[in-house]
Amino acid sequence: MGREISIRKVGFYIRVSTDRQAKEMEGSLVSQQQRLEAEVARKNLSSGGAKWGEVARVYIEEGRSGKDTNRPEYQKMMRDVQLGVVNTVMVTELSRLSRSVSDFLKFMEVLSDHQGDFICPQYDFDTTNAAGRVFVIILMALSQFERELTGERTRNNFHARALRGLCNGGSPIIGYDTDPLNKAKRVVNETEAAVVRKVFALYLESGSIQAATDGMNARGARTKSYVTRAGGPRGGLLFVTNSVHGILSNVSYLGKREVNKANKGKTSEALRESERYQVVDATWPAIVEPEIFERVQRKLAENRELVKYDQWKVYPFIFSKLIRCLECGAELRTTSAHGKNAKYSYYRHVGICPAGIGLVHADKLEAVVLRRFKELDLTPQLLDAVVRGQHRAVAGRVPDLELERSGCESELRQLDEKIEALVDRIASLPKDVDAEVLIRKMREMQAKKPRLSDNIVRLTAELESVSREKLNPEEVRWAIRHVHGHMNELSPPLKRELIRRLITRIEFGRKVMKVSLDPQGFVALNAVGSPGSQGEKKLAPPCFGGSPVCLLSKLG
Ligand SMILES: [Zn+2]
Fold first, then answer.
1. What CA–CA distance (Å, rounded) separates 213 from 238?
2. 300 is in which domain, residue-wise?
3. In this model, does residue 262 exceed pLDDT 60?
4. 506-515: per-residue pLDDT in tens?
5. In angstroms, what is the span from residue 320 Cα to ligand 1's centroid?
6. Ligand 1 centroid vs 496 CA: distance in angstroms?
7. Angle, nearest 10°, between helix axes 473-487 and 492-502?
């Protein structure tokens, strides 16, 4: 048979990324195909009689970018390579096939796995030798580099235009039309400008985006209607809260332009100068008064605060179930009331108070208590009282523990005595009497011993740790500072959790408020993160024993 060279099955891969490119002469679909056909003809002529190859398939990709391989025709071509329908892929330029080095390397791998070849007349190389492969890789790297440079140039140009207050494409906004003389500029559309002003007015009037949205729709107003560059109609729809919010917060209506809006709120130190957020004068006139715009921004900010509160669904009453009336001992229960603009939260006196205590503002009460908390640090007497109270509480536990331990010890002693007596009896039994029953009884007694000795060990350890639990004033000072210093960073539920570990009771009177602290809370808190602690202990459950220390606050 001899050496048989089969005729190559050639696949053309032709790609244009935009419609405009498809119609242009150079690089168009037709031109790419003609150049590839000419190349095949040239190779057939110069192959010395035998036919070099023939076109098996033509893959035409329209309107797809080469940035990835998510292209239907490309995928079809790769399948055909694997099936052997095509064994030589031809493109006019490398960039038609891929703009990514790694995608190209994957392509080459599949191709060589199936003994395929790749031909690109642009460079006239042969992929069957190593030099050709290296060359391709370098070219791909260079083209990627060039693409990055182009991207940077485009970005710089974008930035420069933005700083000059020009538009960089994007959808048109209601109130303005694109300047027919300069696409980067806007001119006022008076009819729409009136709609925009109405949106601002309705929002200021109602304080509600939903109300403003409904109001606009009821008046028959619709979103900006326009035609995209591709010719598709857009907009002209009912307003939704999102579109209204977008209008209310758009500085374009002040004749301003935001630069690098995506970086708004980021610290400028971390960003390059060209990446920083800023607001510059736009090339178009304002259609909303600055004063009105400012008032709307304030209202939007206030509403955001309310929304934040709402996330907790209910006000996180820090002191629920802890408050009593100092005058009559009745409970104060949590309650909420809807005011004009907000929801108010109170602690409400149960029943009628002879001293006239009724509603207490929850946030004000909480603020007073937290302030008092901080002062604790500054008052040696109070600090002293906290420490002494804790010492008393600790000392109070010692007798109980000691009693329990001596109980275990005496039980153990008695057991030993009984076992000894049993042993004696078993030894003195007549030989014909079965000792089985006595031996079983002795074993039962022996089995009780480990539990008792374990208890004694545990109680001894506990007694030792109790004496270590005694606070020193420095620790208490640290705990208070720690709690207060971090209070503002905590979420309301966590704040509540922490405070409730430290306060056992609040008595609200006409002139004074008494706050009872649970000294055990300080021990638990210190265990969490004080310097020198193990850091493993979890917060102990609130302990209501011990001797509470009272903080008195003058009210009003
Ligand atoms: Zn009362």
1. 9
2. 176-309
3. yes
4. 888 887 777 7
5. 16
6. 24
7. 160
Separation of CA 1 and ligand 1 centre (Å): 114
Q: How far is the CA of 337 from the centre of ligand 1 (A)?
A: 21
What is the number of structural domains in the chain?
Answer: 3
Q: How many Å lie between the centroid of ligand 1 and the Cα of residue 508?
A: 8
CA 338, distance to chain mean position in Å, is 31
Closest CA to 77 of 64, 67, 90, 65: 90
The first and second tokens of residue 157, run together, are 């140009």
Gap from CA of 513 to ligand 1 centroid (Å)? 12
pLDDT for 4 equals: 44
* CATH number assigned to the domain comprising residue 116: 3.40.50.1390
> Cα torsion at 369, 370, 374, 380 (round to 10°)?
20
The full DSSP string for 494-535 is HHHHHHHHHEEEEEE-SSEEEEEE-HHHHHHHHHHH-TTS-S
Contact 85, 77 (CB under 8 A): no
| 399 and 548 together in one domain | yes
Instruction: Give φ, ψ of 470 to 5 degrees.
Output: -60, 125
Q: Looking at residue 232, which CATH number applies to its domain?
A: 3.90.1750.20
Which pLDDT does position 251 carry in this prediction? 93
251 and 141 part of one domain: no
Task: Answer yes or no: do 70 and 193 share one domain.
Answer: no
pLDDT over 70 (residue 295): yes
Residue 407 sits at the vertex; the CA angle it makes with 404 and 409, to the nearest 5 degrees, is 115
Lowest mean pLDDT among 55-69, 147-161, 395-409: 147-161
Q: Kindly report which listed range (89-93, 129-133, 161-165, 169-173) carries the lowest average pLDDT score.
A: 129-133
Question: Is the model's pLDDT at 314 over the cut of 70?
Answer: no
In the chain, the percentage of residues whose pLDDT exceeds 70 is 71
Distance 318 CA to ligand 1 centre (A): 20
Q: What is the structure's pLDDT at 192?
A: 95
Rounded to the nearest angstrom, the distance between the alpha carbon of 356 and the centre of ligand 1 is 7
Q: Are 326 and 509 in contact (CB under 8 A)?
A: yes
Question: Cα of 510 to ligand 1 centre, how many Å?
Answer: 9
Bridge partners (DSSP) listed for residue 247? none
Any idea what DSSP says for residue 421? H
The phi and psi torsions of 149 (rounded to 5 degrees) equal -60, -45
| Separation of alpha carbons 426 and 442, rounded Å | 10
Residues 387 and 492 in one domain: yes
pLDDT for the residue 309: 39
The answer on 270 and 390 residing in a single domain is: no
In a domain, 122, yes or no: yes
Put simply, whether the predicted model's pTM sits higher than 0.85 gets the answer no
Cα of 246 vs centre of ligand 1, distance in Å, is: 51
3-state secondary structure 120-160: CCCCCCCCCCHHHHHHHHHHHHHHHHHHHHHHHHHHHHHHH
Q: Within this chain, do residues 273 and 419 fall inside the same structural domain, yes or no?
A: no
pLDDT band at 541 (very low <50, low <70, confident <90, very high): very low
- Cα–ligand 1 centroid distance for 109 (angstroms): 85
Tens-digit pLDDT profile for residues 396-413: 778 888 888 899 999 999
* Separation of CA 357 and ligand 1 centre (Å): 6
In the reported structure, the alpha carbon of residue 504 is separated from the centroid of ligand 1 by a whole-number distance in angstroms of 19
SS3 172: coil
